[in-house]
Amino acid sequence: MTLLDTTVAALTAWSAPSAAQDRLREDYLAHLAAHPDGLWRDGPPAHLTASCTVLDPAGQHVLLTHHAKAGVWVQFGGHLEDSDADLPAAALREAREESGVPDVVLVPDGPVDLHRHTLSAAFGRCREHLDVLYAGVAAAGAVPVVSDESHDVAWWPVDALPAGTVADLPARLAAVVAAVRGYARAVDAASRA
């Protein structure tokens, strides 16, 4: 299967948590039907991206990057690459590359959120990202390393985000916290069994 095939299959199978999210899911599928190259940076100006919001195992702290081009604190993510097997693999690669934390794992329940947003001229020919967000977990005490794409990478309490956080992050963060805390409970229950 190609990356386009796995992406379409994942979006088709995803049970959106709300009517608004389901409309975005349908928009993404329509975009890919009209633009089969809509996965790639060199495709149309609007294309899919994969991102990952990384929390500690307790879901109390979030690891954010102060993105160099955007100039805001945001989750990890970016363009898909030929080597990505699927959207989760792309999100995980982005989280590990941009955080410098090699042991980030994804919560296995699929995407947490879809988000379509326009971009500033700093992003060149990219004008709009159709983002697919996954929840990730890093070991407690994981030490991030700043990449070339960031001014800084740091842990923040989920209820005390830094000034300059991208405006929609708090609303999107609630779904990630719920996913990570649910995952932690499931892992804990499995370890006790």
What features would you describe in this structure?
This protein has 193 residues and is of the alpha+beta class. It has helices at 3-13, 19-34, 87-99, 169-192; strands spanning 46-55, 61-67, 73-74, 76-79, 105-106, 113-118, 128-137, 150-157. Strands 1, 2, 3, 4, 5, 6, 7 and 8 form an 8-stranded mixed sheet that branches. Helix 1 runs antiparallel to helix 2. The N and C termini lie far apart (36 Å).
Total number of beta strands? 8
SS-derived structural category: alpha+beta
The CATH H-level homologous superfamily = Nucleoside Triphosphate Pyrophosphohydrolase
- Fraction in beta strands: 25-35%
Concise overview:
This protein is α+β, with helices and mostly antiparallel strands.
Task: Give the topology.
Layout lengths: L2 H11 L5 H16 L11 E10 L5 E7 L5 E2 L1 E4 L7 H13 L5 E2 L6 E6 L9 E10 L12 E8 L11 H24 L1
Parallel strand pairs: 1-7
Antiparallel strand pairs: 1-2, 1-4, 2-3, 2-8, 5-7, 6-7
Helix pairs in contact: 1-2
